Amino acid sequence: MNQNEHNSHSQLHALRATMARLRAPGGCPWDIEQTHHSLRRYLVEETSELLDTLDRLDFDHMKEELGDVLLQVYFHAQIAEESGKFDLEDVAAGINKKLIDRHPHVFGEMQLQDSEAVLRQWEKLSKWKGRPAANQNHARF
Q: Which residues span the domain enclosing 36?
C-alpha cells in the first residue's frame, strides 16, 4: 500500500468514526434525528450538484460534491448499522461482489473484445437475475 492509499484508508475510517460520533448520544441533535426517509432529499440534492460539476468538468467543486454524496452513503449506512440491518463493510462487500460478478471478462475466463460486447453480456446477466439493465432503470423520487 502506497502512502496515498494508506492516507485514503485512514480518511475513510475517520469519516466513518465522525459519522458515528455525530449520531451517538451527545452528538448532533439534527444528525441523530435523521432517518433514511428524511435524508432522501439531501441525497437527491447532492447528486444533482455532483451532476452539475460533471457537466461542467469543474474538478475543484467535483471533489467537494463527491464528498457530499459519499457522506450520504456513510450516513445511510450508519443509520442501518444502528438498527442492526447492515453496516458500511456490508455495503462495500456487496458492491465489490457485484463488480466482480458483472465483470467475468476481467475476473473470470470470459473473453469480451469491446464495450459493446460488455454491454450485451450485462444485458444477459440482468435478464438472468430478473432485473432491468441499468439503462432501463427509472429514478423514483
A: 3-85
Q: What is the CATH number of the domain that holds 74?
A: 1.10.287.1080
The residue behind cell 437475475 is 129
Residue-level pLDDT at 137: 47
Going from the C-alpha of 94 to that of each of 59, 85, 87, 98, the distances in angstroms are 29, 14, 11, 6
- Asked if 72 and 119 sit in the same domain, the reply is no
One-letter identity of residue 31: D
Q: How far apart are CA 13 and CA 21, in angstroms?
A: 12
Cα radius of gyration rounded to whole Å, the chain? 18
pLDDT of res. 140: 38
Q: How far apart are CA 81 and CA 88, in angstroms?
A: 8
Rounded average pLDDT per 10-residue block, the chain, 141 residues: 62 96 98 98 98 97 98 98 97 94 88 88 76 49 39
Q: pTM (2 decimals)?
A: 0.79
Q: Please, are residues 116 and 57 in contact by the beta-carbon 8 Å criterion? A: no
Q: Is residue 95 situated within a structural domain? A: no
Number of structural domains the chain divides into:
2
Q: Are residues 62 and 122 in the same domain?
A: no
